[in-house]
Amino acid sequence: MTALWLTVALMTGAAVFVVLGSLARRREVPADAAEADVAVYRDQIDEIARDRARGLIDERDADSARVEVARRLIAASDRGGLEAEAAPSVRRRRAAAVIALVGLPLVSLGGYAVLGSPGVPDQPLAARAKQAPDVSRVADMVSRVEAALAKNPDDGRGWEVIAPIYLGMGRADDAAGAYRNVIRLLGSTPDRQANLGEALFAAAEGVVTQDARIAFERSVEGDAPSIKGSLYLARAAQQDGDLPAALARLKTLMERAPKDAPYLGALKDELQRMAEVPPLPLPTGAEAEALKTPEQRMAKVREMVDALGDRLAGEGGDLGEWLRLARARAVLGDTDKARAAIEQARAKFSGDGRAAARLDALALGLGLEGRGA
Q1: Cβ within 8 Å of residue 91, ≥6 positions away
Q2: pLDDT, tens only, 283-308
Q3: Which residues cross the membrane (predicted)?
Q4: pLDDT digits (tens, 9 = 90+) for 329-348
Q5: Domain count across the chain
Q6: pTM, to two decimals
Q7: Per the domain annotation, does 293 fall within a domain?
Q8: Domain end point (choices 201, 219, 240)
Q9: Is residue 281 included in any domain, yes or no?
């Protein structure tokens, strides 16, 4: 910090002296230069009169010469007056420059020392961008909004602003109350009903309660049903043990979604979650330590997946193993082999409705069928 202030002081001083030096330098003009010019031009006028008297020039030439000499005489007289006034003007400009270049920096630095925070360390933008939001500021903002709502509880926009903040802060019950106020004051829309249901779902710690289900069902009514509401209703169906109904709802969303729909990723994640795919057991201990490079680890994974596929093709296996094989094939980029695994599993578990639903969910979630296939 000391080095910074020293550098600033030196730079300011250098700038001051450069400007003052420029102001100090001026072109020296003899004091009687203008008076000498005036005297010369007056002599010329007298000379013209003498030449006319001797008949050396005619009257027309004499008049022209007198006009030109008179013009030069007036100009010389004006320069003399300006130079007489110049000295005080230059002194005033120099005084103003000294005040501006010396006084203003001193006043500015002194004011910053009193009102600013010169002892605070620097805060680079890159470092500040990585910091988490100031919780105290968020809490202060929430307090201000709450105070305003306490004075005007019928401010629907205020409730709509604070509701998602409550949810982000983990205050799900408050968020649900805020969304109820929004619907009461501003009217019901699919998005507002879906947000209310989401807050009730969070308040119930991940369970779709009856109140949440009602809100989600309202959110999918009409011509513009809520995607969020449909996702939660699918989860409610799975929660009730009706996986085919959950899959049917998500499959409909998948088929109707535009190719660039921003919620396709969430749909696929939800479908894979419903498939309940057990993880592939990976090497551990000494065997894992022996795999030094990414290429070695990838080769080991492929070896394990191929071994699983050979075993299931020869001996068969449970549904979880078939799901694991299909997902592993897809992750490795072997989409044709992943589809073949799905079809083999469907044939094997053709009489099990729940197994069929899990296989369908995984196929959709991996993009092997429907949208993205």
Answers
A1: none
A2: 777 777 777 788 888 888 899 999 99
A3: 6-24, 95-115
A4: 998 999 999 999 999 999 99
A5: 3
A6: 0.58
A7: yes
A8: 240
A9: no
